[in-house]
Amino acid sequence: MTPEERLAIIQRYIAKMPPLPATVTKVMAICNDPNATPADLNKIISLDPVLMGKVLRLINSAYYGLVQEITSLVRAIIMLGINTVKNLVLSTAVLSTLGNRRNFQALNMDDFWRHSLSVGVASKLIARKRGAPRNRLEEYFIAGLLHDLGKIPLNNRFSQDYQEVIHRSRSDALPLHVAEKASFGIDHADVGRLITDNWQLGADISDTLFFHHTLEGVAGDSREIIHSVALANYYVNVKGLGFSGNCCPQPVRAENFTGLDITLDYLESVEQEVKSEIERALVFLRVAG
Fold first, then answer.
1. What is the pLDDT of residue 289?
2. With a threshold of 0.85, does the pTM exceed it?
3. Which residues lie below 8 Å from residue 286, measured CB to CB, with a gap of 6+?
């Protein structure tokens, strides 16, 4: 099969993916309005009782560790911020749409999502260490959580071939995205960009999915998120927290650490915190399922 034929198959798969719920699309639009208020966001989410229930369940989970139970969505939005609640809504919708076992043939779904959650958690800790604004921390988490989304269509459409790609990555000591490109003509970063374009997930997520293996030349507002996710991805792969098919993670250059003023020693020092946070973040999978 030629690379062009494989690309066409992936494009058809993505075109047939269920659209994100209309409520989520409206939430994204509201949150892009600098004049949006908690009442505006509450009005949209309240139209979807199932979604509202999921958001409140996440907000009251151990992941956020709030002292008192929050029963009012408006209060939750005021406490956590519009941006945080938007990312809760988006992550819940994406996981609900793509988190089904039928999408996983070559990869183990539980290991895949554990790896993804781990990268999200580690990315958020890096952002916190660097002093990122509190209302932006969830952007790092969701970018890490979704960074390997492009593997799902490859896994679903070319499951047998994808197993061979994983085997080639291991036997030839190649990073998985390099083995994908050599075998398919496209890699999961290319496919991730197609998904984010189809769902209009925003520049930060789109750029993270596309550039997290090619940091050279990355610039603009998404740079810090992309570099944080790349470091977190390397750390999580080396530590074996979950598994998303990459047996030979691409080493991260020293300048990528110094550019973020983060050291590998710091990541080593928070290993237990990462593991604890992962256990709390598993609620995202339970709520989405």
1. 65
2. yes
3. none
